[in-house]
Amino acid sequence: MRAKISLMLQAGVIVLAGGWVYWPAVHGGWIWDDTSEIIDNTMLRNPAGIGDIWLRPAGVDYLPLKTTMQWLEWHLWGDRVEGYHLANIGLHLLSAFLLWHLLRKLGVGKCAWLGGLLFAVHPLMVESVAWISEFKNTLSLPFLLLAMIAYVDWDRGKPVPSSYFVSLLCFLAAMLCKSSVVMFPVVILLYCWWRRGRIARSDVGASAPFFAVSLILGLVTVWFQQHRAIADADLALGGFLPRCAGAGLAVFFYLWKYAVPVHLMPNYPPGAFNPPALWQFWPWAVIIAGIVWLLRWSALTPTRWANLDVDQARWGQRAPPSIPRHILFGLGFFLITLVPVLGFVPMAYLQISWVADHFAYLPLIGLIGLTTAAISRFIYFSFFRFLLLPLFAFLIWQSHRYARIFLSTETLWNYTLAHNPESWTAHGNLGNMLGQNDRWPEAIGHFEAVLRLKPGHAAAHNDLANALAQSGRWPEAIGHYEVAVSLLPRSAKVQGDFGRALLKAGRRADAIEHLEIAVRLGSGNIADYYRLGDALAQSGRLPEAIERYEAALRLRPDFAPVHVTLGNALVNVGRSSDAIAHYEAALRLEPGDADTHFNLGYTLAQRGRLPEAIVQFEETLKINPNDARAENNLGITLAKTGRLPEAIAQFEAVLRTHPKDAEAHNNLGTALNSTGRRSEAKAEFEKARAEGAR
Questions:
Q1: CATH of domain 626-694
Q2: Burial (CB count within 10 angstroms: exposed 0-12, middle 13-18, buried 19+), residue 369
Q3: What is the mean pLDDT of residues 108-124?
Q4: From CA 523, how far away is CA 551, in angstroms rounded?
Q5: Measured between alpha carbons, how far is 440 from 429 in angstroms, rounded to an integer?
């Protein structure tokens, strides 16, 4: 009973500490690429989008399980940001409990829960949990930990075959959430060596299916990165030697930030090692020397310990000869799982910086396991136990404080610029945020700062062009658009932004050319299809315009303005019955739009559905009582249904507010004439001629 209470208290501490750490971020907004990941991701809105996610992915990565879960999230809580934050926090705490369970299985003992607590509250974890787009981190790790737990169960004395297949399936799920877990098969072999002091042929055979999954999905990831994420980007990574220098320095950067988690930031300054200086290779000398020393120490183990199963010697609680194997296992896990994000394989983020907190989310498991093993060895010293409380209190306070900067784009990037003034990423994101709030002069300043820090940055030219266009500085805007297009000719976003700006500037033919390219490149931006339809319609190319409007609705069926413009185009090609359906769809989405009510009423009247048309004209006037078009058409429709007194009253109402409306005078004259009031009718016709002649 006491053991159960103790377990519940330990679990409660992890939940309360983790919950308090991340509570500031729960009500935070969308930051960085959250908008493109969630809000603008049309696949998430589509009820049938699951098939596209798996078979026709449109993103820069192939992570279908992660995107499927985001699809589910969207259908659960839409654009309510709290749901996404709570999901990240819940998955993070789940990983903390799974790590606790795994460490117990690996022999850490009663201190294993401290490993779970350390994982839950360490400041290096904050970025992955507080940043919604890092859902791939928090979702992939529980699957990876489950894969490890199942493999450990299978590898022990009486292996259960089902555990092996559970491990393989969980690893596959983890790979479909985030491909940086690709090194797990190597971790399996490291575990086998740690447990038995050797890697047997049977261990290699057992790991083979894991290597197959790793290889296949790893190659898929490389293809997506090369052809989508960095297809036109110059990462300036240099050759093998600069990458080696950067990788070694990154390893010790993460070790340092784990040991001393202060001055963390979302965007660290980029490294300068292309070409590398000789001194920048010192980390590799330390790493190689350390591994050799630990292996020699392990080899000097007395014979009676040589084949000791680690299960028989708990981490740090038994014979000293087991210590080098434990250290190699913990550090090996850290180094092996860090390999995919060290820059040897090109990836988009490397153009921003060689290091990022979220890269360390998975690798730090090894360091946490090693730290927990050390705690279990020294926990019996009262002085050491006394130090644990302030240590964890500091980590919890530091993480809570850091989580607060993820409240909004403004807090995030202002904090970044305060700590890293040369961050072109921070300037670019602040510029976009200011633009969204119509603070264009300030936005222009930030985009110009990006180009000072990173000349030739295509996206910055495009962003600056957008800001200049919004400020009415068209010649400058067009110049920057042209530079952006020359640098990124295969970018759907750049082509689409340029096309929409050209349309606004009145250059319809040029706008069509660039919007067509954007659509052809697979633009997922509904505005590209929508504005291309407008440009084609204005050019008299109505059948093509209708095709583009329909394509826009396939992307986003709930976008009312497209239903309206499509309805207008359909009316102009004589498909009024189809137009009515789209007007009605638009009104279901936006029932308070006066223009749509009028368009629907006018089309219904043309189709002879006069009572329904009257209802729509009356709805128009409820929303906009001074709409002369609706007043006149309501009067005409009333007259056509034989309700002449009401029609006359309606025309007279129009003339009280618009006394010079020639059409209203003419309509009133026609209605009066139909009731035999010819002298009054004649007077109204004369007024209509007089107003029309002016």
A1: 1.25.40.10
A2: buried
A3: 93
A4: 11
A5: 13
Domain locations in the chain?
Answer: 2-231+243-406, 558-625, 626-694
- Torsional sign, CA 310, 313, 316, 321: negative
The closest alpha carbon to 231, from 492, 48, 3, 412, belongs to 492
Q: Give dist(CA 562, CA 553) in Å, integer.
A: 7
Rounded Cα distance, 174 and 189, in Å: 18
Domain boundaries 558-625, corresponding CATH code: 1.25.40.10
Please state whether 343 falls in left (phi above 0), alpha (psi between -120 and 50) or beta: left
Residues 6+ apart with CB under 8 A from 253: 355
The confidence band for 96, taking pLDDT boundaries of 50, 70 and 90, is very high
Range 9-39 burial, b when 16+ CB lie within 10 A, else e? ebbebbeebbeebbebbbebbbbbebbbbbe
pLDDT value at residue 232: 58
Q: What's residue 658's pLDDT?
A: 75
Distance CA 413, CA 265 (A): 10
Q: Which of 29-38, 261-270, 656-665 has the highest mean pLDDT?
A: 261-270
Euclidean distance between CA atoms 195 and 318, whole angstroms: 15
The whole-angstrom separation of Cα 494 and Cα 492 is 6
- Residue 302 has what pLDDT? 43
Find where tokens 């749509």 sit. Answer: 596
d(Cα 496, Cα 513) in Å, to the nearest integer? 10
pLDDT digits (tens, 9 = 90+) for 408-424: 999 999 999 999 999 99
483, 459 Cβ separation under 8 angstroms: no
Q: How far is CA 119 from the centre of its chain?
A: 24
Stretch 13-37: mean pLDDT = 91
Question: What is the pLDDT at residue 319?
Answer: 41
**Mean pLDDT across the chain:** 87
CA neighbor of 372 nearest in space, from 103, 115, 106: 115
Q: What's the CA gap between 634 and 577, in Å, rounded?
A: 20
Which has the closest alpha carbon to 145: 119, 127, 108, 123? 119
Please tell me the predicted confidence (pLDDT) of residue 51.
Answer: 84
Extract the tokens encoding 575: 């498909």
Can you give the pTM of this predicted structure? 0.81
Determine the straight-line distance between the first and last CA of the chain, rounded to whole angstroms: 97
- Distance between CA 522 and CA 160 in Å, rounded? 48
Do the two domains 558-625 and 626-694 of this chain adopt the same fold?
Answer: yes
Structure tokens at 157: 């004395």
Are residues 127 and 21 in contact, defined by beta-carbon separation less than 8 angstroms?
no
Token pair of 576 as six digits: 């009024």
